[in-house]
Amino acid sequence: MLPIYPNLTPINLDLREQMQNIIFESKTDASAFTFANLYLFRTKYNFNMSLLENSLFITGAEKGETFFSILGNLPQKEVLTELLRKYDYWKSISQEQAVKLNELLPSETVSEDRNNFEYLYLRTDLAELPGKNFQKKRNLVNAFIKSYPPEEREIKTLDKSTLKDALHVLDEWRHGKGEHGDYDSAKEGVELHELLGFSGLVFYVKGVPVGYCHGEALADGKSFAVHFEKAIDKYKGVYQYINQEFAKTFSQNIVHINREQDLGDEGLRQAKMTYRPAGFVKLFSIKKSTKAE
User: Which of 63, 126, 141, 168 has the largest count of CB atoms under 10 Å?
Assistant: First the structure.
């Protein structure tokens, strides 16, 4: 069970059901607040959890600074003021919370956290790649299809029987990149694919696994977050092919595909923008308060 604030506990698998109930009730469209995302990046951000007035309270650290986040209703002004003194900043404030905070804490500056905006794409756009705006994407998909005709391509569900193939792709991806990146989180995501409730695909060329992707439906019921998408770069057009084929598998109930943030990486930002996002899950932050209330 989650402790009551100010007590904290590291996130663990035993908390999954309780946390998911809170997340589901919040109907959040932010992938930052899925149990899977918090769990898989628990070591990177040193996440700890508790209940704060029936909301999920999260603490962490990044680049030598401490932060907190709140999923659910905001606590009283006095509590927020104390938290802003205690931690370096408040991270992942929702747009709804930001509006309330402008009234609740008018002396604080609520700023857009552009690096953590989550990219939203219309499912139909990614599945169909329509019109001139997606011509280059269609060309890359067609190049992949032309290089590898139907008899040489195969798509399988990511499950226990294909986990080893996804892990092979991940190892090849890391080798090709020459850097560790999010390898540890991605590897655990594959290993815990079923337990975390992910759905995904593995892609093959001539029987060799060349890519995989997986993620989960979000609490708002209309979005799907793609948490991990990895491929072997030497197969030209493979990422565009994976992106389109995965989008084709979603039901019509899914309006948006959330492909998460760019974390300020200019190359990644440019790549995400080329897919013409329909919008963003805008997240905000407040820096540490030094004001006396």
Answer: 126
46 belongs to a structural domain:
yes
Domain of 14, in residue numbers: 9-117+283-287
Q: What b/e sequence results for 35-51 when a residue is b if at least 16 CB atoms lie within 10 Å of its CB, and e otherwise?
A: bbbbbbbbeebebbbbb
Cα(137)–Cα(130) distance, integer angstroms: 10
- 199-257 confidence digits (pLDDT tens): 999 999 999 999 999 999 999 999 999 999 999 999 999 999 999 999 999 999 999 99
Containing 12, the helix (H) or strand (E) segment is none
Which of 11, 1, 89, 4 lies closest to 44 in space, CA to CA?
11
The 10s digit of each residue's pLDDT in 166-196 is: 999 999 999 999 989 999 999 999 999 999 9
- Shared domain for 109 and 128, answered yes or no, is no
Strand pairing class (223-231; 256-258): parallel
Domain co-membership, 204 together with 246: yes
26 and 91 share one domain: yes
Question: What does pLDDT average to over the chain?
Answer: 96
Are 206 and 126 in the same domain? Answer: yes
Whole-structure pTM over 0.85, yes or no? yes
The amino acid at residue 138 is R
Residue pair 105/80 in contact by the 8 Å Cβ criterion: yes
